[in-house]
Amino acid sequence: MNIQEVLAQKVKEAVTSIFKVELPTVEFQPTRKDFAGDITAVIFPMLRYVKGNPVQIGGQIGQFLKEEVDDVTDFNVVKGFLNITISNEYYLDFFEGIRNLQDFGFVSQSSKDAIMVEYSSPNTNKPLHLGHVRNNLLGYSVAEILKASGKKVYKTQIINDRGIHICKSMLAWQRFGNGETPESTGLKGDKLVGNYYVAFDKAYKAEIATLVSNGIDEKVAEKEAPILLEAQEMLRKWEAGDEEVVGLWKTMNQWVYDGFEITYKNMGVDFDQLYYESNTYLLGKDFVEDGLQRGVFYKKEDGSVWIDLTDDGLDEKIVLRSDGTAVYMTQDIGTAIQRVKDNPDVKGMVYTVGNEQDYHFKVLFLILQKLGFAWAERLYHLSYGMVDLPSGKMKSREGTVVDADELMDDMTQTAADISEELGKLEDYSQEEKQELYKIIGLGALKYYILKVDPKKRILFNPEESVDFQGNTGPFIQYTYARIQSILRKAEELEQNLNSSQKLTDLHEKEKELLKQLQLFPETIQLAAENYSPALIANYTYDLVKEFNSFYQNVSILGEQDQNKKIFRVQLAKKVSEVIKSAFELLGIQVPDRM
């Protein structure tokens, strides 16, 4: 039991003993810096059960704790807050218990039941862009946090490899490509295919303009432009298994997959399983047919199939078009069912998808529940806000997307420019410098995005993200590197860093740092429960701030008392290990030198 659990139990005992009532829960919070104490019990919620003056109630409980709990050395009451002081011995014992733990804060897998986390889920008609960057970083980090909290996790993506948008790129390549390939152009395959998606849009708009100039209504022209009709015909041929169309589709999709693989590697994300809509949409159609027989769905006069969710506060939703072709909902139904067929231990799923799809997932989860799947009760939409740049919104059809590869390259260059200005890398080789710039640049990008609550929209400022001061990735990386420098110097002084130290007193800054370390396991669990890497990111920033305050106020290697010196080096080492562990959960590397 940690100290908070002990205190909760003893506070309940105090209330029972003194006031003759049972208290169901006790609310704690860290003691404010301007008051004496380490942990604070909040008295106000107790007033529903205990009548009286909160200051007097707090005083009586505090006295009980001081008499009954060895580690409680003092207390004070400020209004409705009972501030409790914990002994130095408790914190020293805590540190001795975690000092040599390699995976402090992490929990071993505690259940055979698995959670599947889906992220990325790109279309095979264009490269990954800034929106995909937030998606991938969030999904990957949530998967790692869930694993650290004790869950079994599968990381997956559904690749949107079918549909009219894919046919648009294919048709444009047929018309304008002159047989060019990634090899002949030197372009990544996803970029080459994306260029033809843009080329289709230009040709489509030109045809609309021609039709309008010939007196056709613009809305009619948008539906009857010859190039669009041809793309729709290509989609019908694909669904019918036309050999030539399917062959081109396989070739161009493979170009894109090869390109994606490079981007994922550079981004530092991976997947355990891949799913393709071209495989799962047919299963979705089967279950729509099954649901139709069971009365879950109904058919309209035109032959389209719908579900009526008005009794559930939603509306009617189409699940199959009148011509029998699938909609997104159809394939999402099939994908979810296929995943559980492939992995019977999956008892829940997390979908990392932008907040413009909030309604879609409410409908999907409800449909799966109505189809009778028990696991559908444990589906979660990790909804996130858009990422904007100072230059404005992105439009992929017009080719104004912020390309993920280019963004990562730009971040590396920004890190290089700032690092060169600071001028601390004179003894680095060019190769070492380039590797460091990449670690700093990607760390800056990832941290800037992940420190924000997923639901919030982000205005991403590259220069601000690479600042070596404030709540940024490079600031935290720099602190980690500073600690590594201390550890190298300690080794040069031939300190025995593994010996146990028997101290009786603690400097205020040492105690504050130990209190912050103690929060790491709890923070991992909270981040897992809330699917929020932001909790890990901001915990790490708070830890680093606490370390820097310790570093500025307490001598480490200059300390004359040998026991204190070794303890402080060990404490610094543990802080660096937690920084590294926390950043690994965010997919961020830490350099040993900066």
From TrEMBL:
It catalyses: tRNA(Arg) + L-arginine + ATP = L-arginyl-tRNA(Arg) + AMP + diphosphate. Residues 476-594 form the DALR anticodon binding domain. A motif ('HIGH' region) lies at residues 122-132. PROSITE patterns: AA_TRNA_LIGASE_I. GO terms for biological process: arginyl-tRNA aminoacylation. It is found in: Cytoplasm. One of its GO terms (molecular function) is ATP binding. It is an enzyme of class 6 (ligase). Its EC number is 6.1.1.19. Its main location: cytoplasm. The keyword Isomerase does not apply. Keywords: Aminoacyl-tRNA synthetase, ATP-binding, Coiled coil, Cytoplasm, Ligase, Nucleotide-binding, Protein biosynthesis. Transmembrane segments: none annotated. InterPro entries: aa-tRNA-synth_I_CS, Arg-tRNA-ligase, Arg-tRNA-synth_N, Arg-tRNA-synth_N_sf, ArgRS_core, DALR_anticod-bd, Rossmann-like_a/b/a_fold, tRNAsynth_Ia_anticodon-bd. The keyword Protein biosynthesis applies. Gene3D superfamilies: Arginyl tRNA synthetase N-terminal domain, HUPs, Isoleucyl-tRNA Synthetase, Domain 1. Residues 483-510 form a coiled coil. Residues 5-86 form the Arginyl tRNA synthetase N-terminal domain. One of its GO terms (cellular component) is cytoplasm. Monomer. Belongs to the class-I aminoacyl-tRNA synthetase family. This is Arginine--tRNA ligase. It comes from Arenibacter echinorum. The gene is argS.
